[in-house]
Design goal:
The protein is 39% helix and 16% strand. The strands form 3 sheets. It has a 6-stranded parallel sheet. The protein has 10 helices and 11 strands. It folds into 2 domains: 87 residues, Rossmann fold; 134 residues, 3-Layer(aba) Sandwich (Rossmann fold). The radius of gyration is 19 Å and the shape is globular. It has 292 residues and is an alpha/beta fold. The structure holds guanine. Guanine binds next to strand 4 and helix 6.
Length: 292
């Protein structure tokens, strides 16, 4: 087994982004700017947003966090988004999900100007991604593609089984792996909670992408010898063994699956770190006016 090391690849790409950001500052006279909106104070969302902000600063971006109480109205949130859409000094805007039930995430996503939608969730960006046109690619799938590329994992002609069909990871991932590109050119099976014979499906995979949100769901008996295994799981549990008070678990039972996999991502230290890089790459591309 060999490790797909998110720490190594993410640090390497962040150095490249930092150079681009420095050149942008000297040419344009300002830093690339990302705004994150956080509603409420869910522990997981707090951690992820703090990490996004910290990494922006690390590569020389400006980052701003706008916070709202859980009871903010949908109208107030949409008004703020429209205001930011008009601000030419802002390159990227993300609204951290999940949102409270009284706010429609689809309305929020569609209100963000697609040219600032560095999460890549807007229908314009998703549509363009399907057609292989310039767009913002959702950060986690983008990060996974960068990792496959960095390790020169052969994907053409392989059978990729994606487990989970979320809008954020599983669905866009299945499209990217099937595109006529490198990485890509896979035969893709997108599986989900209603899939019959899930184990038999996963057993056929040359590449498994696990994005179901269930701790240690994929076990060794479900994985073909020599498969490439990408673990998107971010299952957080309280722990008295860590400084933060939390421990992160993947969707893959690493100890057993790593004995069969040819390549595997660890959790933590794998896909999570690459997600942030996807977001930074999109923000840099937006600042440079690459997406219109
Ligand atoms: N919640 C979980 N993942 C994400 C993400 O990539 N972007 C946003 N905005 N919210 C999330």
């Amino acid at each position: 087994m060999q490790l797909l090391d998110g720490k190594y690849v993410s640090e390497k790409v962040k150095l490249e982004i930092a150079q681009e950001a420095a050149a942008f500052l000297s040419d344009i006279g300002r830093k690339p700017h990302l705004i994150a909106i956080l509603v409420g104070n869910d522990g997981g969302s707090e951690t992820y947003v703090a990490s996004k902000m910290k990494n922006c600063e690390k590569v020389g971006f400006k980052s701003s966090l706008i916070r709202y109480d859980l009871n903010v109205t949908e109208a107030e949130l949409l008004k703020k988004i429209k205001e930011i859409n008009e601000d030419v000094t802002v390159d990227g805007l993300i609204v951290q999900l999940p949102l409270p039930k009284h706010i429609d995430p689809e309305k929020v996503t569609e209100t963000i100007d697609h040219r600032k939608d560095v999460d890549g969730f807007h229908p314009v960006n998703l549509g363009r991604m399907m057609r292989n046109l310039p767009c913002f690619i959702p950060a986690t799938p983008y990060g996974i593609m960068m990792m496959l590329k960095a390790y020169e994992i052969e994907t053409a002609g392989k059978h990729c089984v994606v487990v989970g069909r979320s809008n954020i990871v599983g669905s866009p991932m299945s499209i990217l792996m099937a595109r006529n590109a490198n990485p890509g050119n896979c035969t893709v099976t997108l599986t989900h909670s209603r899939t019959v014979n899930l184990k038999e499906m996963i057993l056929q995979a040359d590449i498994v992408i696990a994005a179901i949100g269930k701790k240690n769901f994929i076990t060794a008996d479900m994985v073909k010898q020599g498969a490439v295994v990408i673990d998107v799981g971010m299952n957080r549990e309280t722990s008295d063994q860590t400084k933060s008070g939390y421990k992160l678990f993947g969707d893959v039972d690493f100890d057993s699956v790593s004995e069969k996999a040819s390549w595997i991502t660890p959790v933590p230290g794998g896909v999570g770190l690459m997600t942030i890089v996807g977001l930074l790459k999109n923000t840099m591309a937006s600042a440079k006016g690459e997406i219109y």
